[in-house]
Amino acid sequence: ALLWHRFMGKGVIAADSNSSPFLRVYAHCSKGRAGVTLLLINLSNQTNFNVMVRNNMNSDLHIGKRSPSEGSFVHGLQKSVSWIERKASDGTLMREEYHLTPDGDLRSQTMALNGKPLQLTESGDIPNLDPLLTDMQSLLSVIPLSIAFIALPNFEAPGCV
Q: What PANTHER family would the database entry show (predicted)?
């Protein structure tokens, strides 16, 4: 809930996925900043989903299962989404990834964020929620039984301020 509150704005962008009933995809205007934030929920306990965000005129989001025998699927993030050329200091377009997984067993009472267990600090505060900064052109992997918030500051939708 904390990640949803921090990243998902009020503006909703149509997003649907026909790749699998086990992959849920939601897209919102990012909260408090430019861009779009995706929420990907992998309900499968076996399938790893791969997502590729490409810089093209239709701004298509390609979602596919890892197994090549399954084929690939195309998911349109809507034609109203466009690319903004913002780059990191080294010229690479970056995205922010926040992957939530159970810490060990699915019934664990502790969640891991990007592989690190989420625990309160010694003073009882919420720990830093540091993202993985990843090249926008690289493949995004959503492992089984996980939730991923993906901030795409390089996308702009007309309905997002």
A: HEPARANASE-LIKE PROTEIN 1, HEPARANASE-RELATED
